[in-house]
Amino acid sequence: MFGNRKNTGISLFCIGVLLILCAATLCGLNVYSMKRAEKMSDDIALRFEEMLHENIGRPEAREEAAPTELIIDGSSYIGILSVPSRGLWLPVRSDISYPALMESPCRYSGSVSEGSLVIAAHNYPAHFGGLRRIANGERIEFVDAGGAVTEYTVVLVEILEPDEVKRMIDSDYDLTLFTCTPGGASRVTVRCMKI
User: Fold this and answer.
1) Which of 9, 129, 153, 164 falls between 20 and 30 A from 181, CA-CA?
2) For residue 125, what are the β-bridge partners?
3) pTM of the shown model
4) Which helix (H) or strand (E) holds 45?
């Protein structure tokens, strides 16, 4: 009788240790993913900026139409999103996919020229993790692939449910940024208007 209790106790202890090790491994993988995304975004933003300066410096660039995308390592980027008050300087991919979101923010829909740009990113601290703390009136800039700078001001921060896709993209706002809430159940959504 006591032998079964002892074996059960040892088994439960081993299962507990195994679960703690699994949780620690998951935490480690999350930290690794966040650091990797931060480094990749920093590297891509620097390369984007270098390419932008090279393109602007070419004499023939004055006569050509400004590019809408720059290709870096086989991926297409539409611009750089800057949130000066948060120290963010992030490249924005032209397409969205889960693997792309692991590297940088992505265009979800729309464009700057149409006044309907929607950008999604993970809630990594180096990406959109601080969106829930952004305040109305903060300035945001978007530098497109041709070097044109569009300035925005934050006018609304709201929480949307994951199924409110139509509300996310069909709006009168010129720029929308969104990311998951810390638990992933909802979306922190920042609405901006051109200055």
Assistant:
1) 153
2) none
3) 0.79
4) helix 2-57
Check if CATH label 3.40.390.10 holds for domain 34-194.
no
Per-residue CA distances from 4 to 9, 10, 84, 172 (Å): 8, 10, 63, 67
146 burial via Cβ count (<10 Å: 0-12, 13-18, 19+): middle
> Minimal CA–CA distance to 79: which of 51, 98, 39?
51
Tokens standing for residue 86:
């948060």
Burial class (CB in 10 A: 0-12, 13-18, 19+), 183: exposed
pLDDT of 56: 64
Structure tokens at 142: 């978007």
Domain ranges of the chain: 34-194
Which residues, 6 or more positions from 64, have their beta carbon under 8 angstroms from its beta carbon? none
Per residue in 41-90, pLDDT (tens digit) is: 888 888 888 887 776 655 555 555 667 888 898 999 999 999 999 889 99
Distance between CA 145 and CA 76 in Å, rounded?
10
Strands 117-120 and 70-72, bridge-based pairing: unpaired
